[in-house]
């Protein structure tokens, strides 16, 4: 059986990062709200529990409380920041507002190398982010590390396997942070490093086969990494009983339709239903300027076309969706804290309920990097595995203002040139996204002694971990020069290229 580490979320911005770090060490991890019941914990049978940090003070009215029962289950516990303060307060120690907030890198001195800091150096850099601190230890607890500002940077009650750290071992700025988590997992919780995606694939294939039997599964394929990997996995399980629907909404990138058909129909031999609905989408987008209205029209039309196509498939009982773990976690409205933001599903939202189909979501507990690894194991082509994210409403939200055939031609032509240069210059993998935006304004230029009056293309390139925040990509000047020259020389209708240098927030990645 795969060992599991349970992470209880007290509202930290780093909760998902803790879960990913544990999985990097090949131990399966799950996140539950800090209000989880003891019976649910018993059902999950975790080998260890990690309490996340949180934005509260343990003395604040309404602050989330750690249940005594959880700590008394006899399962090893590691509290991080707020998690540690909760353990200390609950066990009879004293936590108080610090006279000085400690934020950022802090040299830390290890006082005890037995378990949590086994093989760690005597001094290391830790990443702190707290206002409160522990003033007095509960009975039986030992100090394991300190900093100049914080007498109890790490504490423990080794005989009960209860530990707490004031700093954040999950962030890269903590030197050897992964080693500390590894010590907790393997020395303290005695986990086996047995979380393997190869096994996960085999297990999912078995489960899908057993669940679906001879019925059919419908899957919306977009060519993006999630839906592509999902389709290949399900295809491996049930072959041609998987019916993929791929819709050309008229606002895809150049070459996308041909490529998707080639990869999935020819290479993977899937039953791919291709629907060319470009003219319907473009007709409905005619004259529409408002970005939200464009999104609404594309969303509704997509559902309509998808439903029509799905109706042609007899005995379809299931709909496969590429829901990922962050979507699941972020849609649980359990607490008023920062992790309780509710994210609606963009692309095929609303479909299962309307179509009375049962859902299959094999990636519900996976992070994006794990889906990419599965894609690799399943033999998907490199261009799909590392493809930049592409929004459901496609190029329609990259043409500011009205979408017309001419504007689409200009944007598609510019975008493919940009992508080729970014790939050739080996910048593609460094960037989260890079694309062109067509601005609905014309400017004066001169070409071959003639006055021109043509469109402006904006280059948007960003670096990001997850698309939630982003910085503008620092593309070298000579590459920017090459991009500008190539687009202006090769794309009829463009005489000016500009660069977007806004971060998110306050801007967003897409322009609309
Ligand atoms: P923003 O523009 O909000 O985008 O900073 C964040 C990330 O989400 C992508 N995006 C979408 N993806 N359907 C999608 O599947 C959408 O409607 C959509 N809108 C934005 C965007 O490309 C970026 O990666």
Low-confidence stretches: 335-348
What topology, given as strand order, has the largest sheet? 2-1-3-4-9-8-7-5-6
Superfamily (CATH H level) name of the largest domain: HUPs
Count of DSSP H/I helices: 16
Structural class by sheet pairing and helices: alpha/beta
CATH class of the largest domain: Alpha Beta
Percent helix among the residues? 25-40%
Bound small-molecule species? xanthosine-5'-monophosphate
Radius of gyration from the alpha-carbon trace, in angstroms: 26 Å
CATH topology of the largest domain: Rossmann fold
Our count of domains comes out at: 3
Tell me about the largest β-sheet.
9 strands, mixed
Total strands:
18
End-to-end Cα distance, whole Å, is 47 Å
- Beta percentage is 15-25%
**What is the CATH architecture assignment of the largest domain?**
3-Layer(aba) Sandwich
Mean pLDDT: 93
Q: Which outline best applies? A: globular
Short description:
By secondary structure, the chain is α/β, with parallel strands linked by helices. It is 34% helix and 25% strand. It binds xanthosine-5'-monophosphate.
How would you explain this protein's 3D organization?
The protein is of the alpha/beta class and 512 residues long. The chain has three domains: 4-188, Rossmann fold (3-Layer(aba) Sandwich), CATH 3.40.50.880; 197-385, HUPs (Rossmann fold), CATH 3.40.50; 405-500, GMP Synthetase, Chain A, domain 3. 34% of the residues lie in helices and 25% in strands. The protein contains 16 helices and 18 strands. The strands form three sheets. A nine-stranded mixed beta sheet has the order 2-1-3-4-9-8-7-5-6, with helices on both faces. A hairpin with a 4-residue loop joins β8 (154-157) and β9. α6 packs across α7 (225-238), α7 (225-238) packs across α13 and α15 packs antiparallel against α16. The relative contact order is 0.09. Residues 335-348 have low confidence and may be disordered. It binds xanthosine-5'-monophosphate (XMP). Xanthosine-5'-monophosphate is lined by residues 346-347, 389, 391-393, 433, 467, 504, 508-510.
